[in-house]
Amino acid sequence: MSALKPKHQRLVLLAIALVAIIGAGLLASYALRNEASYFYTADQIAANPPKPGELIRLGGMVQEGSLSTLEDGVTVAFTVTDMKSATVPVRYTGILPDLFVEGSGVVADGRMDEGGTFIAEQLLAKHDENYVPRELQDMQQHSADETLKTLETSQ
Amino acid sequence: MIAELGLTALWLAAALSVLQLVAGALALRDEGGELAKLVRPAAILQGLLAGFAFLMLLYLFAVTDLSVKLVETNSHSAKPMVFKLAGAWGNHEGSMLLWITVMALAGGLIALAERRLPEKTMLATLAAQAFVGLGFYAFLLLSSNPFERLPMPALEGRGLNPLLQDIGLAFHPPTLYFGYVGLSVAFSFAVGALVTRQVNPVFARAMRPWVLGAWIFLTLGITAGSYWAYYELGWGGWWFWDPVENASLMPWLAATALLHSVGVLAARDALRTWTIMLGVVAFSMSMLGTFLVRSGILTSVHAFAVDPERGTFILFLLVLYIGGALLLFGLRAATVAEGERFRVTSREGALVINNVMLSAILGIVLLGTLYPLLTEAFDVRVSVGPPYFNPVGAIFTIPMLLVMCVGPLLRWRGDSLGRIKNSLAIVAAIMLAVLALVVVLGSYGILPVLGLSIAIGLAIASFLPLRGRNLLRVPIATWGMVVAHFGLAVALFGMASETAFSEEKLAAVPVGESAQVGPWTVTLENVEPVAGPNWTAIQGRFAARYDGGDAVILTPQARNFWAPPQETTESTLATRWNGQLYAVIGNQAPDGRWQLRLWWKPFVTFIWYGGILVALGGLLALIGRLKSDLKRRYVKSRLADRAAEVAA
Q1: What's this model's pTM, rounded to 2 decimal places?
Q2: Where a domain ends, among B160, B183, B205?
Q3: Which of B13, B98, B515, B619 has the most CB atoms in a 10 Å sphere around its CB?
Q4: What residues make up the domain containing B535?
Q5: What pLDDT does B104 receive?
Q6: What is the pLDDT of residue B588?
Q7: Coiled-coil stretches, from where to where (chain A) (predicted)?
């Protein structure tokens, strides 16, 4: 390479840079299409079930009264609902995050098993009780409206 | 009264930044006029006023003045003093005030100390700094006034989010902000140099300490944030590829590239336009990071209640400053004279490859972070995590690390690989030996195996530039490079080791029984209620034995804070030289057993030791550079004195 003129040396570096940048772009777009995990709500899972074993993100509300601890003492089962009709049974082995309560929103990363149960690998904890994950903002709004309606009718 | 003093100081500082901008811009046309004399004092006074305003806010938090809205929303009289003070920047308004304060102080410091640059470049730099500052003053004063009073003083504050009531809050946000804002200075220098087209080694030497300083703070901020999330979130993870984390990584990547290219510009007068471009990009990444964190536009595990409107304002500032700077760049870049040339196999060549790889990694992280926003435009919601970032990032990180082993051994301008082939052979042999050893020992993922091999090779290679030199005569800045590169190897070793060798145990254990994880036996001795200043907790008492040795007592807690009401999990750690035991206590199962989650993480601490070493390397480089700058200045003044004597 030392035989090359200075001007050509510059071109070599430019070529390396171009190849790297274009390569990075192509690689990133290819990987993003394959590795991004899709967000599902309970009704979307019912309507269009994802392949078992595919990494997805599930979001919804933890149904009141659905939380139970299994025999082994470390696995919990609960139901995630879209606040309308659809529900998905969920299992999670681990310690529940601090702000995890029934009737509140949850976002979980995991996979569906063959039997239609969502096996959560990670429950997204929140830092702040006022924070609502973006995916759940519409749903939270919806449930707030429902609560108001119930209050109005009961009066 | 104190709040009004603070607010007045802030308004005055904003007014001075207008003066600094207008006087600086006008004086560019009329050099040596009266206006030019105003610019430096305006910058210094502005820094002092902003600093004063920030001190006033600290005072309000220290005495818990509940007639101030910000104190009422974020503080509580029963909180320990350190968290009262840290609470001043643990919220939106306060953190923006911290931002502007650091920025104004930095501007004041340049005005006070920087005497090397041509006066015109200096004026343009200070005007650019004032222009950026002005946007943030407007933001603070018009939409996020930290000194706002309540119509009626409250009886008690609402308290600070318990997860933030941690010593991490005292360090992590300010260090990151120092880093972000330090990059604003680099940005102003870049704009100043573009205006006057004076891009040369003198300019690079003036800009370098700021880039180094910002980079040191970013490194420390990311290291501290990673450790904080590791022990506070209770998941035992040190990096999640979360948008908020990426928001701090992207400026770091850009600053690392800038740091190396500014070195080339200072030493060899090459990479002129590229350095300017990186100066603009690095600060864009800081602003983008602030925007992502403040707007809550992406789902994050580190997100606090956020306000989209404020995000919009930051986005507006981002577009204004970065768009403006890029436009200026587009107009001026072609007129900046071409720098010195060099061969591919040279120090410069290796640094260019380093820069290209860092830019590629930056691009990959940026795309992955923003991808969910892109797909959302088409109503598809996705999240991007480790399955994307790890392999795709590694494809560019591995060649970069390999070049890192070679680059520091090469000479400037032109060199041949043949000259250093013995050193290269040693490093390659070590890497292959480690690779073979790990592959024989067990089956681990490909990335951690490569990570271990490269980490050990790089650790050795980082000391090779010292070979055959008198160690006492090696410049401090060179030591800085050696320490920083070695630190990166240490951190990489920690990451690879944690990924490859971690063991996890999740068990439900009755009091008196034990659980095994790796070489540890952990016995649950008892569970009891305890109380703190503003919380009560269930506390487990664990006796942990490493390899049957003496018991270490661990007391993880599940805390209930009452102001504001919130539960937190307090993990505990048993640290040994070769790793950490990480323990969390969960709920009680209906049959009385307690949930325990235990991890044995070999060499995990090396991640953060490595981060600290990298920052220390930066500090050594900074000291070395400042020392030689002072020496240069001294020699110059002596020469001037002598010339004056001769003339007399």
Answers
A1: 0.91
A2: B160
A3: B13
A4: 503-602
A5: 93
A6: 81
A7: none
Single out the residue of B77, B65, B50, B89 nearest to residue B148, CA to CA.
B65
A48 touches chain B (CB under 8 A): no
pLDDT recorded at residue A134:
64
> B426-450 pLDDT, tens per residue?
999 999 999 999 888 888 888 999 9
Using alpha carbons only, give the angle B598, B599, B605 rounded to the nearest 5 degrees. Answer: 135
Q: Are A80 and A88 in contact (CB under 8 A)?
A: yes
Q: Is residue B217 part of a domain?
A: no
Q: Are B451 and B499 in contact (CB under 8 A)?
A: yes
> At which residue do the structure tokens 């009531």 appear?
B165
Residue B63, in any domain of the structure: yes
Mean pLDDT for B561-578 is 82
Tokens of B543: 């006796």
Q: B416: which chain A residues are within 8 Å (Cβ-Cβ)?
A: 2
Contacts of B384 in chain A (CB under 8 A): 32, 35-37
DSSP B411: P
Chain A's closest residue to B416, CA to CA, is A2
B306 at the A interface (CB within 8 A)? Answer: yes
Of the listed ranges B89-98, B280-289, B391-400, B443-452, the least confidently predicted one is B89-98
Q: What is the CATH number of domain A39-154?
A: 2.40.50.140
B140, B160, B180 — which closes off a domain? B160
The count of domains in chain B is: 2
Question: How would residue A153 be classed by pLDDT, with cut points 50, 70 and 90?
Answer: very low
Q: Calculate ∠ Cα A50-A55-A60, nearest 5°.
A: 70
